[in-house]
Amino acid sequence: MQCRLSFLEIACGIIQKLQAVKLEDLKELELQEMLTSVSDLESVKLQISWLHKRLDEIIEAVQLLKHSSILKEDEGKS
Asked: Residue 39, CB half-sphere, CA atoms under 13 Å: how many?
């Protein structure tokens, strides 16, 4: 039971971090680490596939923001 509680605390920590930080302040490496943690939690049968999906969406959004800012920089140079 204690082990399951620890797993839930890890999941809650990830959720709290995502709620507290602005999208543009999230780093891809940090998100990948969160995704790895979620995958580990899923492997011990914690049903958080919804969080895995949400992290995938957030990673995609962060990548789009990054590409968008690069395009804006290139536009400004022209």
From this structure: 8
